[in-house]
Amino acid sequence: MTSTSAPVETAARQAHPSAGVRNVPAIAAGRRPSIARLTGIELRKSVDTRSGRVLLLVVLGLGFAGLAWRLVNAENTPVSFELYLGTAMAGVQLILPVIGLMAMTSEWTQRTALSTFTTTPRRARVITAKVVSALLLGMVLTALILVLGWAATLLGGAITGTEPEFDGSLKLVGGVLIANLLNLLMASAFGALIPVTAAAIVAFLVAPQLWVAAGPALFSGAAQWVDVYGAFGRIVNWEWVDLPQSATSLTAWIVVPLAVGVFMSLRREVK
User: Fold this and answer.
1) Do 250 and 228 contact (CB within 8 A), yes or no?
2) What is the pLDDT of residue 78?
3) Which of 256, 259, 253 lies closest to 232 in space, CA to CA?
4) What does the alpha-carbon distance between residue 127 and residue 41 come to, in Å, rounded to a whole number?
5) What 3-state DSSP class applies to 159?
6) What is the mean pLDDT of the chain?
7) β-bridge mates for residue 165, sequence order
8) Torsion region of 238: left, alpha or beta (phi above 0 gives left; psi -120 to 50 gives alpha)
9) SS (H, E, C) 86-155
């Protein structure tokens, strides 16, 4: 039996090399990994590195610190969900988008592009997975901050002995989620455009601020049409009167950089 089965097993392994290897999934020739699988890989890469874990902790720490400060001074300010959430999000909205930026620059900064794009030659699928994973992670973190803000508002009411205000909470929550996701997309666009993490972070943080400071002086009222922070503020408050201005700002700071950045990433030389 042994002498007969051995040649048969050897022939089978030659026909299907992965058949006799344990813990290695047999993948049909030409099968592409799904977007869901690639997204899971990118999510794991975002939390498996030391820098990724530190970034997540910093985001949550900023939200917690803002709420703690608000509770310490609860007696001096109104207890409202809008006020508490605004304090929590002040620092979070500055750092949270860096998750998307680092996801886009990681392959080039950490010199893993060769192995990644050799395993998955179709770069568009990897880039899509990176953007989706960053948005999912950003939504989870935003949801945690929202829950913390809700709990802190209740606690603030208990501390002051007043009824906490939750008027327009659902509207506010929706606006914050949309604005944060768009901010993440904007950071992802900068990351795709500039493949060096440090340079991309500087550009992402400085360029919109420079426009806010210098734009009105150079272009007067027309500068509002490219003010992305103004667009984010209107989205949070559900102000659609200036919709054309918001759409123009989002196109200039998100759609155009993302399109150019993806185009460059698809053709960037892998070293």
Assistant:
1) yes
2) 87
3) 253
4) 12
5) helix
6) 84
7) 80
8) left
9) HHHHHHHHHHCCHHHHHHHHHHHHCCCHHHHHHHCCCHHHHHHHHHHHHHHHHHHHHHHHHHHHHHHHHH
Cβ(183)–Cβ(194) under 8 Å?
A: no
Q: Determine how many CB atoms are found less than 10 A away from the CB of residue 167.
A: 9
Do the beta carbons of residue 258 and residue 188 sit within 8 Å? yes
CB-based contacts of 50: which residues, under 8 Å, 6+ apart? Answer: none
Paired with 80 in beta bridges are 165
Cα–Cα distance for residue pair 104/264, rounded to 1 Å: 12
pLDDT tens per residue, range 122-168: 888 888 999 999 999 999 999 999 999 999 999 999 999 899 999 88
- The predicted-structure confidence for 95-121, as pLDDT tens digits, reads as follows 999 999 998 988 776 666 667 777 777
* Pair of tokens at residue 263: 């185009």
Contact 129, 104 (CB under 8 A): no
Distances (CA, A) of 5 to 2, 17, 20, 21: 5, 17, 14, 17
What band does 23 get if pLDDT is binned at 50, 70 and 90? very low
Residue type, 47: V
Q: Where are the domains of the chain?
A: 33-267
Which residues 6+ apart lie within 8 Å of 247 measured at CB?
Answer: none
Kindly list the distances between the CA atom of residue 84 and the CA atoms of 63, 140, 172, in Å, as whole numbers in the listed order: 10, 19, 12
| Per-residue model confidence (pLDDT) at position 111 | 66
**Higher local confidence (pLDDT), 27 or 226:** 226
For the entire predicted model, the pTM comes to: 0.82
DSSP letter (8 states) at residue 162: S
The two structure tokens encoding residue 172: 């506010």
